[in-house]
Each structure stands twice: as structure tokens, then as C-alpha cells.
Amino acid sequence: MAKAAASGFLRHGAAQSSNPYTALRKSPSILSPATGRSRTRSVSVVRCVLQAAPELKGGDVAGVFDFERYLSSRADAVNDALDRAVPVGTAPDRLGESMRYSVLAGGKRVRPVLAVAACELVGGDADAATPVACAAEMIHTSSLIHDDMPCMDDDDLRRGRASNHVAFGEPTALLAGDALLALAFHHAAAGSAARGLGSAAGAGGVAAGQAGDKYSEGAAHVSLATLEYIHVHKTARLMEASAVSGAIVGGGTDAEVERVRRYARCVGLLFQVVDDVLDVTGTSEQLGKTAGKDVEADKATYPKLLGGVDQARAYAAELLAMAEAELDGFDAERAEPLRYLARFIAYRQH
User: Fold this and answer.
1) Where are the beta strands (DSSP E) in the chain?
2) Which GO molecular function annotations are given, in alphabetical order (predicted)?
3) Is residue 13 part of a domain?
4) Which of 16, 30, 58, 221 gets the most CB atoms within 10 Å of its CB?
5) 31 by DSSP, 3-state: which?
6) Is residue 42 domain-resident?
């Protein structure tokens, strides 16, 4: 039954969705549709393989953007806002503790920083993006709580400590994820920005991607197009919505918002490609979650479908170049946070 459902989903997914990155990539497909074998891909914009991290901190070098300081300051502001947004006493004690346990557990805060940086990119004030930034992190945290549960990926470790359902029990974890999702829209209920987050969180986004990921486990064949469908929805859509929401509340023009959208799509897929590589190359201690889970669950991953870790890294390098290209034409100084954020995602080690 499970395999029949999986194959049905794959056929449906391939028929109903086109790959949104096809228009962004000018190079040929990684896999030959006739044979499924890897073939050399021409990548004119990138000739490197992501291995060693570049220097992201300017230090005392004049004119060099200090990304670490920027990331830390924006993440601290979001953490403070989240702390205020999920106060003790607004829910039954154990439920409130469970919500705070996960949403305040740290993490890279990529999605809220995307929202803030996109807002600033188009000339807006960072404070204007705080509500949608918090909402994006709540939605993301909700998806992580549910993703770790026994009915899904059954993972006991998240962000270096026990997963929510291990710490609080499955019923409380389920409700905490639901409550955080609802709370997200309480904070983002400011017009069109909230609509984009809603689409990214539901059946057109994270839920669809998670379903596809689950249904494809153990399938005899998963195509690259299907894998990208899964990760466009599971990962990229929420990053895209975070950045677009920030650009909207910052007063960006339609053209600016669209360029931010394309940038964030590339970054979202880049995040997942790197995640797949780290699942193979990292340890549980480095990652803060169980390493090797994708192989154990027989999931389709980029290293698996592209023919190895080096090929997946090369694809990541291409996505990084495309993301950065979308920032050309914006004010260079305001674009620096998003440029460095893309590099941070590309070269991260956890």
C-alpha cells in the first residue's frame, strides 16, 4: 500500500508541477531523461566546488561588510521579539513551555533574517519586518516539531537537544506545533504579507513538501524534478515567503519584490542541497540533529541523484551564483546582508 501510494504521488507531482528553477537555470538538465545517467553540466557562471568557507567577517578591514555582526544583531532582535510574542501564561503551562522550548531553542534564524534584510534592501526599516520575521520563524519551528514526531521522521534530536515530543510527549508537541502556526498569523495579519506566509505554510508549501518527502521514501525511482518539487515546497517556499513579506512591508516595488522572490527561491533550494550534503558528511554533534537519517530512511537526496557529494556541491555553487546575480542592480550596501546570507548558507557546517 505504501509503495503504491508513493508511486501515485510521484506521477501526480510530476504531472501537476513544473520545476520553478528551470527558467532560472540556463544549463542543461543534470540527468539525461532518456537514460537517467549523469552527464557533464556546463556551468558558465561558477567554476568552483563549495568546500572551504570564505571569510564572512570583515574585522578591521575598511569597507568589508561584517556579516557575523549583522546576523547576530538581527537574530538577537528576533529572539527578543519571539520571547515577547510567546509569553508564559498565555496558554496552559505545559503547552506554553513546549512552544517556548522549541521556538526559543536557537538555530540560524535564516528565515526571519531574510525578512528583515529584504525589508532593508528596498529601503524599509527593520522594525517594520519584525512581525513577519517572527511569524516565519514560528511557522518553521512548527514544521520542525511535527517533522520530528514518530509518525513522520521519528527523530529524537533537534538543535542539539531532545526533540519536543521527547521532552513534552507527543500530544503536547502536536498541539505546540499547531499553536505556533496559529500564533504566526496573529503576528503577520497585516495584509498581503500574511497571505504569502499562509500559502507557504499550507498545502501549497511546507505541508505539500513534507507529504512528498514522506511518500517518496523507499520508492524505486525518484526523479530530480520530483526531488526539486519536494524541496521547493518543503524548504524554499517558506524562505521565499519570508523574504517577499519583508520586501512588501518595506515598500518595495513589484519589480523589486519579484527579484527578491527569485533570489530567495535559489537560496531556499541551496539550503536544502547543502543540508543533504551535510547529512552525509557531518556528525550528529556538528549538526545538532541525527546525521545519516536520509540514508537510513532511503530518501532521495541531491548527492544520491546527482552522483555524489562533489556533484551536489557543484550544483550548490551554481545556485549561489544565481542568487547573488538577482541582487545586482540594488543598492550595493543594502544588498550586502542578503549576499552574505546566501554565502553563509552555502558554506555552513551545520
Assistant:
1) 157-158, 161-162
2) metal ion binding; prenyltransferase activity
3) no
4) 30
5) strand
6) no
d(C-alpha 341, C-alpha 322), whole Å: 14
Whole-model pTM above 0.85? no
* Of 103, 212, 205, nearest in space to 158 by CA: 103
Q: Tell me which DSSP letter residue 151 carries.
A: T
Distance of CA 305 to the CA centre of its chain: 20
Mean pLDDT by 10 residues, the chain (350 residues): 30 32 33 30 36 46 76 92 80 81 90 96 93 93 93 88 93 88 80 69 75 78 88 88 93 96 96 93 83 81 92 95 96 96 92
Domain holding 290: CATH number? 1.10.600.10
Closest CA to 221 of 4, 10, 5: 10
- Residues 326, 262: contact at Cβ < 8 Å? yes
Query: Which class for 138: exposed (0-12), middle (13-18), buried (19 or more C-beta within 10 A)?
Result: buried
Q: At a CB cut-off of 8 Å and minimum separation 6, what does 148 contact?
A: 154, 155, 156, 158, 163, 164, 165, 173
Task: Tell me the longest C-alpha to C-alpha distance in the chain.
Answer: 62
Q: Which 8-state DSSP code applies to residue 38? A: B
Q: Are 108 and 342 in contact (CB under 8 A)?
A: no
Q: What is the DSSP string of 202-246?
A: STTTHHHHHHHHHHTTT-S---HHHHHHHHIIIIIHHHHHHHHHH
Give the domain range for residue 84: 64-347
Domain-located, residue 271: yes
